[in-house]
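Let us practice reading a record.
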Amino acid sequence: MSDPTRLTAYTLLRAVFGKGQTLDHALNLLPKIEPRDRAAAHRLAACVLRHAGTLDETLAPYLRREPPDEVRDILRLGAAGFLYLQTPPHAAVGTAVDLARAKKLAPFAGLINAVLRKLVTAGPGVLEELDQPKLDTPAWAWASWGATARQIAQAHAFEAPLDLSALPGFAPLGATPLPTGSFRFPAGTSVHEVPGFDEGKLWVQDAAAALPARLLAPQPGEPVLDLCAAPGGKTAQLCALGAVVTAIERDKARLTTLRGNLARLHLSAETILADATSWRPEQPFSAILLDAPCSATGTARRHPELLHLRKPRDFATVTALQDALIDAAYAMLSPGGRLIYAVCSLQPEEGAARINAAIARLGAHRHPLRLPELPEAETPEGDIRTHPGLWPEQGGMDGFFIARLVKPRAPAAAAEEIECASPPCLAREIDPAYRDAH
């Protein structure tokens, strides 16, 4: 009888490779199992997903023909345990054979036994001559990431740390403060073990994900529109900074999650169930945050299945939606107001290409963003592009693209050059309403 960890890990892999489901979705469909087994299964399945290309390469010399997908996943699990997770050789082989029998694949038990025995005999040295970052990255993704592809792929080999944002004045004990204001704990940390989380002082948010709201630079009492707002991390940031937030989300379940997260943090915002492409406010806003739906390839460290599920053909649909959302957000922006556009994507067609198209289409002005704590994330055009290979000594960060558009006060008016580097100063310079209010 196979152990529950490997049975569950196998189920997760088949959900991803066989049904095109995300790990989170597959985890939610699992029958109730011990939390320790659930966590171990997720770690094992994620390891296979991070290293699938390398695992297949190490198994190839011992396979005369392509095995069924179910058998390949069992081989991957055995190989991943041995090569990456310090599973003893006999256990890596034995548990894989037991798993095959438990999943009614007994006719392949001999093949699985023979292949994995040969692999463990060869030892971990089989990895030494392989270009693992490239093997573990789809060719379309590698090509699209350009000069940063190897940095990104190397970072994808490791679990992401736990990053948290905090209410003003609170700093969790044991955390590493990051220069951009987030707090970091090692990978594998349970958030419920972090002092202050259960008391509503903190929320989970990658350091890169915390940048768009900060770069919007809302002033206390300023009305701010947060589009595509769920699950609410950025909404919470805006509220904590003192903004008067209107949060729009079109998915009812996700809006419920957003409201629950705000309630846990004792923060308040007006929350509206609506499609941001068609909803319109009574009055325009001087500050809008659009964290648009995207391919989410920037979160592949946390969701390693995404690079297996995404295909280049998917991007045409998502970029069309991003254009529609930018147009809608711009229509809701007051003259002189600022729009922060952000996506947790590494794909250039979802980033600078969307902003360039919006400028040509709408007559918007791009106002450069500055990030003194992370100048290497600044692009020549004045946008921010983070990726997992940045801050390698501190554990990296998610991939994000962030840009700022400003609506001119008159169609022919040219945007003023802004020299001030601090976000509040930038905001005040863009919209003189700040000078009137403060």
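A brief commentary: The longest strand covers residues 333-343.
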